Amino acid sequence: MFHVLCIHKRNHPELSKKGAGLVFNSGSLPDTYFYWGYIRTGGLALRWFKDNICKKAEDGSYYQVLEKDARKVPAGSNGVLFLPYLTGGINDIPDAVGCFLNMTMDTDQATLWHAVLEAIGYDYMEITDLYRSAGIDLSRITITEGGSRDNMWNQMKADMLGSRTVTLENAAGAVMTNCMFGAYAVGDVDNIAEALTGNIHLKNEFEPNEENVTFYRGQYEKKTHLVKDTMKEAFSILAELR
Asked: 110-161: per-residue pLDDT in tens?
């Protein structure tokens, strides 16, 4: 499961109401509010492709091989689209399943991997669109944990989300934050806000390519129409075959 977390100093009722599709809670620091969007098959899709499709379950370094080859694939993956519903449908498309679409004899492993990364990016776009509709500024997005290790994907996220994306020297944000709050709880840290900000050091920054931003917005709209409207009947028929 991948999380898309927005931390804000003001509560946005339209994001915390029932049906918004986000998990909401107030933060540990004063006047901070958390809005959690989640993508159920993000990391699972990456692992599934490496382990089951590439047959490299024991080779953790194969992600670097995939990245190197996928750098040659253009935005849009030559028309190939991956639907990442490997664990089942969501919300208004309960019968949705994972599949590759629009493949040809020229489709290779690098193109499929590129399409998997873009599929997760399209899900990110849906969540960040929701944040932006509430007036939240997403001109800069920080990427942490395992998803921050692939620079090609970090640039793809910048292009798909239309935001400057940054990574940190210490990518393990959740672990570091939990340790700091534990130290704060027992009195070893006096000012938790200073301790947190003092340990944030930028590693890389990725500026969005405006041509790709426009391209991906068009692709996202087509993909959304395809999945949520055109393919509903197809998903229902596929469910009968299982």
From this structure: 999 999 999 999 999 998 998 888 888 889 988 877 777 889 999 999 999 9
Distance of CA 221 to the CA centre of its chain: 17
Range 22-28 average pLDDT: 70
Backbone angles phi, psi at 160, to 5 degrees: -75, -35
Cβ atoms 100, 62 nearer than 8 A? no
Tokens of 228: 């949520």
Q: What is the per-residue pLDDT for 41?
A: 79
Phi, psi of 61 (to 5 degrees): -75, -5
Q: Which residues contact 139 (CB under 8 A, 6 or more apart)?
A: 163, 164
- pTM comes to 0.86
CB 77 within 8 A of CB 43: no
62 token code pair:
């194969």
Residue at 9: amino acid letter: K
Let me know how long the chain is.
Answer: 242
Say if CB 2 and CB 148 are below 8 A apart.
Answer: no
> How far apart are alpha carbons 168 and 179 in whole angstroms?
17
The β-bridge relationship of strands 202-206 and 164-168 is antiparallel
